Every structure is written in C-alpha cells, then in structure tokens.
Amino acid sequence: MTTYVLVPGMWVGGWAWRDVTDRLRAAGHDVYPVTLTGLGERTHLGGVGTGLDTHITDVVNVILHEDLRDVVLVGHSYAGTVLPGVADRVPDRIATQVYVDSAPTADGESHFGIHPAEAIEGMAGHVREHGNGWRLPAPDFAEMAAHPGGEGLTGEQCRLIQPRTSDHPFATVTEPLALTGSDTSAHRRIVIACNEFRGLAEAGIGRYQQAAAALEVHHLATGHWPMFTAPQELTDLLDSAAKA
C-alpha cells in the first residue's frame, strides 16, 4: 500500500481528483485529496490574507495531523509551486514528488513569475475589477476546451466542472516561494508531462525546460486536466511511480 497526497491546481478543490482517488483506493492505496483554503468546500475560508504560505500549510497539516509517512506527494499545475514548500517543511515525511503537467518552482520565484510583468498587471486589474481585489475569477471551461490546454474535455464534463469551480486567491500565485533549505535530495521527483508542460518546455520557459532536462519525465497525451480527461492513464502512472 502506498500513501498519496493529491494537491489540486487553480480554481478547483480536492473533488477534482475523485476519479483518480477512487481508482487508487480500489487498488488498495491510502489517498488524501486536499482542498486548499479558499477553494472547493473551503471557499468560505479564503480572504485577502490567503497566500502561498497558507496553501503550503494546508498540505503540511494534512500530512502531520494524519501522521502520514513515505508520502507520494502529487501536485497538478499551480501545485508545482506548493509541493516544494511542503517538501521543504516536512522532508522526512515525503518519498516522492510528482508534478502533473507542472514543474517545481524555485526558491524566490512565484507561480506567475514565468509571465511578463504586463501580463501579471493585466490579471491584477481583472482581480480588482471582478474579484473583490483578491480573487482571480475562474475561466470558462467550455471555452478552455476549444484550446490545446483543454484537449479531451467534453461538453458534459465542462457543464459538471464549471459550477464547482472557485475564484482563486490571487496572492497565492504572486507570492514568492520561500524555502528554508531543508535537504530534499533523497526525494524522487517525477513529471507527468501533458500538452502544456511539453509546450512550455519546448518554448524554453525556465522551470519547465529545466524539469524536462533534469527530472524523470513520463508523457501523457492529453490536455492540461488529465484527472478529468485521462483518469485511468494518470492513475496507472501514479501507481507505477510508487512501485518503481
């Protein structure tokens, strides 16, 4: 039996992992899907002060209070910025870090640090106008499905996903990651590369290009939301990651 902690990306809660969670549990694994503060069923707990450190603490507290060890820590998309912070705080509890269509963010960088300053300011304006000054409104999943990142999403899936999305606390993606320097060298680090990771790595985007060159990479031919579009294939890769 393997212990998995599953961390979602932007705009969704732990519910997004359901199809993967059910499959992993059916295979006999212990699985903890996390909902980060301000999202999913914890939407009401978010506020102006909800930042990256809040989300790191959310995951750390699940690991500590459930007394989890030898954890396979899995993060999708934005969670590539959360995972290094969690591993830094509880390095002795983590066995493997898995980045699903994501890459590890470096110390001192923010999740949105890969974007030009003018793009971030544009999003900040959107937050001020439509997100009460602290939330980034969720995208339209039906529109997303028409682009490469949404490859594989069906109309029915979009109709089910959209009402369960939450506007995302904006400070979490602009706050720089602050690591203490804990030794995480013993952790196995794996990337499950979907379309977005491959595109960003090929475009020479720093953290993605570096991860493609330095980490163990497994390819999954689907869009940016494999927990919805390819749950069995994603489950198989996670199961293999634990056994290797």
TrEMBL record:
Any single GO molecular-function term of the entry would be: catalytic activity
Q: List the InterPro entries hit by this protein, alphabetically.
A: AB_hydrolase_1, AB_hydrolase_fold, Sec-Metab_Biosynth_Hydrolase
Q: Which residues form the AB hydrolase-1 domain?
A: 5-236
Q: Which Pfam families match?
A: Abhydrolase_6
Transmembrane region positions?
none
The superkingdom of the source organism is: Bacteria
Return the protein name: Pimeloyl-ACP methyl ester carboxylesterase
